DNA sequence: CGATGAATTGACTTTTACGTAAATCAGGTG
DNA sequence: CACCTGATTTACGTAAAAGTCAATTCATCG
């Protein structure tokens, strides 16, 4: 496991721009350390980036992603906070389950559409 | 099955604005019929709206949704077109499968985060 | 017929998530 | 040192997806 990644290494690995990484930092999603003025990304920062991009692909907004990231962080020390966090986690799970339903439904519609195509081809006497 | 829905019925059912429905129409996603100037939405239009909103929740852009919707339509009559459509459907499926991976990964991270919270509570001697 | 309330249209505004350009700085190389 | 390459900062720009507002038109009910 590398100790540090430069900003360009991450842009290449994830196919995003430096602007994007700095934007996420500005939004408080990541906090790379600095050597002088240049940013050094730790493996944990890299992992966060991966999680952010996953969230983005799933259609979450930056602030929703921020909420999810809060949850990933070390659990708080206080009992009340812990219960609250567990509650929040459950809420996020609900959102994701809704997305999963949407996803399965869409996949099913695609299956139907494909079947219609295949049938149509069969009617035209074409071997699939 | 109702024959027609008014625009406000659909806005209430789906929790969206009339502006949104007209926007989707302007983008060529739906095509309600008209009685005079007022729009009448058929069950098939309503179904399309449902599919559009699903796509949106999954983070697809309007043009991606437009592509998906093309696929739902009646299959074309020509063999080449049919093969092309089947190919497109497969491509969409790939996108959705990526999203499903993202989704499962995120759910797993949430599980881990919750477990950490529960453990922490146990350490503090709290009954869950 | 006139009032009232829904529907339409068009113009303008807003928010999000970055892109892009310009100026500055830092470190290594010949 | 001069130069080059990369990174940073700041500021402004922009495209997508609506929201908002105002002016009109229609329908219909009393
Ligand atoms: Zn929520
Ligand atoms: Zn369907
Ligand atoms: Zn594609
Ligand atoms: Zn992880």
From TrEMBL, chains A, B:
Residues 86-123 form a coiled coil. Signal peptide: none annotated. Pfam families: MerR_1. The keyword Transferase does not apply. Gene3D superfamilies: 1.10.1660.10. SUPFAM superfamilies: Putative DNA-binding domain. Residues 4-71 form the HTH merR-type domain. Keywords: Coiled coil, DNA-binding. One of its GO terms (molecular function) is DNA binding. The keyword Coiled coil applies. This is MerR family DNA-binding transcriptional regulator.
């Amino acid at each position: 496991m590398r100790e540090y990644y430069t900003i360009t290494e991450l842009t290449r690995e994830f196919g995003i721009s430096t602007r994007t990484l700095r934007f996420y930092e500005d939004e408080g999603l990541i906090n790379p350390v600095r050597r002088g003025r240049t940013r050094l990304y730790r493996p944990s920062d890299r992992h966060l980036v991966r999680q952010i991009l996953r969230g983005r692909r799933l259609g979450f907004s930056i602030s929703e992603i921020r909420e999810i990231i809060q949850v990933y962080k070390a659990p708080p020390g206080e009992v009340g906070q812990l219960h609250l966090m567990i509650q929040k986690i459950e809420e996020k799970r609900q959102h994701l389950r809704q997305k999963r339903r949407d996803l399965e439904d869409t996949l099913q519609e695609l299956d139907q559409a494909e079947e219609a195509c295949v049938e149509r081809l069969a009617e035209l006497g074409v071997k699939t």
